[in-house]
Design goal:
heterodimer; A: about 180 residues; mainly alpha; about 80% helix; B: about 150 residues; Helix Hairpins
């Protein structure tokens, strides 16, 4: 019962943060609030028993992505303009999408149920065999690095590609700025 | 749809509904706001809500984090394991991968925004559309006749 209460308090704070992000025009405040959002979601991950996900989210979501966004607004403009299009259309789009998704969740098993398809497939096997196969106490590490090591290898490939992309996009930024300065 | 008025059913599914509310807030930011940095923030909110939804599928009520007990020789203590309910570790692994891939794509998007600002001197979507329309109009005025009235 107390768990449910904690979850709902966290949800309220998450929704309030998200609404504040919708309302605020100064991008610095928006970026800071998105860091707050990540930290609150890390807390929610802890109550959902996903401690590894929680500290990755706290480090990556609240840490690295905040730094990246701050450096982006340092290179661009810090204030957003008011949109000039009709405000009603996005609300309708979001309302219809949300209603469809909620209709989809009606068929889902109850939150926290033990006999769902997700619990009855390989997960139990992983928990059972991790002590003998890998002998590390953290089952998540066992799956990440051993049972599903190829997933992690593929992830490395994606991160490498994205890194090359960022380097190609931003290389020569300072040089081009200097040249522009000389022309003016 | 009659189950929507059953309290027990609502309590079992309330988490999913709340994740979707958060998701839709992110989607609203992406669709409504024209500033590109804010759109990326909206995408991040959407993404984290999907992560929470996915993790919640692996939650077992009364369960604990999937970290196994150890004996005094630093091996997993299989006897102490018996009788403890663990939440499903598989969604955790998949979402760990997704978080790292998410930050990679976010950084790529932000780098694109920096380049867009360099080329257009603005990061507002509507401004960029106007500039592009002006450029097309200029092109038409210059080369329209040679292209047969269209460019």
């Amino acid at each position: 019962m107390i768990e449910l209460f904690v979850n709902f308090v966290l949800f309220t704070m998450l929704v309030l943060t998200a609404l504040a992000i919708v309302r605020i025009d100064r991008l610095f405040a928006v970026v800071m609030l998105s860091g707050v959002f990540s930290l609150l979601s890390a807390l929610l991950f802890v109550t959902l028993d996903a401690v590894d996900v929680a500290f990755t989210e706290a480090a990556v979501g609240a840490g690295i992505s905040t730094v990246l966004m701050l450096s982006t607004i340092a290179l661009t403009k810090p204030v957003q303009k008011k949109p000039r299009h009709n405000a009603l259309v996005p609300l309708i789009v979001v309302g219809v999408t949300g209603a469809t998704l909620i209709y989809g969740t009606l068929d889902m098993p109850a939150f926290g149920a033990k006999d769902t398809p997700a619990q009855n497939h390989v997960a139990a096997l992983y928990l059972e065999r991790t002590p003998t196969d890998i002998d590390v106490p953290n089952a998540v590490t066992g799956i990440l690095a051993s049972y599903r090591g190829f997933d992690t290898l593929g992830e490395t490939g994606v991160v490498f590609t994205a890194g090359i992309g960022v380097l190609l996009l931003l290389s020569g930024l300072a040089r081009r700025r200097e040249e522009e300065g000389e022309e003016q | 749809m009659s189950e929507l008025f059953d309290l027990r059913f609502l309590a079992d599914h309330a988490h999913y509904f709340l994740f979707i509310v958060l998701m839709m807030t992110g989607l609203y930011i992406v669709v409504d706001k024209t500033n590109l940095v804010k759109k990326i923030v909206g995408l991040n909110i959407f993404q984290v809500s999907v992560f929470m939804f996915y993790i919640s599928i692996g939650k077992v009520s009364g369960g604990t984090a999937p970290i196994l007990p150890m004996d005094d020789k630093f091996h997993v203590d299989t006897e102490a394991m018996a009788g403890i309910a663990y939440s499903n570790p598989l969604p955790h692994v998949l979402i760990l991968t997704a978080i790292v891939v998410g930050i990679a794509t976010t950084s790529l998007g932000l780098a694109l925004i920096v380049r867009i600002r360099e080329a257009f001197d603005t990061i507002d979507e509507e401004d960029i559309t106007h500039i592009e329309q002006d450029m097309t109009r200029e092109d038409n005025a210059k080369h329209g006749n040679a292209m047969g009235g269209m460019a």
